[in-house]
Backbone:
């Protein structure tokens, strides 16, 4: 049985996916205009299909990490998720440049959700989940 921290992780993961999808579609035109403004990208013929493909590739990686973290208890997947989060923090200061719009607010909420999700991965019941130990307190497991 999965511990409560992992169940909460999973629930927040899907909330984050929904917020990310909303932000992607709200920012789609601006992102497309940005990649099309680069002559090198235009020469390659990259357009909306490439942008959607990159989003779907990222979504597939996230779903794979979710599966291995929340369903299989993979410690390796947990650390890969944490490394991706840390790399994503590089873009955090950019959210504070210029004015705030709904897309930036969703981005900040997404970062906060992910930070809390990582916190959940280090709770005692989650540590047991990843180490495959028997729980010392059966109340933390469903």
Residues:
């Amino acid at each position: 049985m999965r511990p409560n921290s992992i169940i909460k992780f999973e629930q927040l993961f899907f909330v984050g996916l929904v917020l990310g999808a909303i932000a992607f579609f709200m920012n789609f035109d601006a992102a497309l205009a940005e990649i099309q403004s680069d002559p090198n990208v235009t020469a390659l013929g990259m357009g909306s299909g490439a942008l959607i493909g990159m989003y779907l590739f990222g979504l597939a990686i996230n779903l794979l990490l979710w599966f291995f973290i929340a369903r299989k208890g993979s410690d390796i997947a947990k650390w890969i998720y944490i490394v991706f989060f840390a790399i994503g923090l590089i873009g955090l200061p950019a959210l504070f440049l210029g004015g705030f719009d709904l897309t930036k607010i969703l981005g900040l909420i997404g970062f906060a959700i992910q930070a809390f999700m990582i916190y959940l991965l280090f709770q005692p019941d989650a540590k047991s989940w990843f180490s495959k130990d028997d729980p010392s307190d059966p109340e933390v497991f469903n």
About this structure: The helical segments are 4-26, 28-36, 39-44, 48-71, 75-88, 102-120, 124-131.
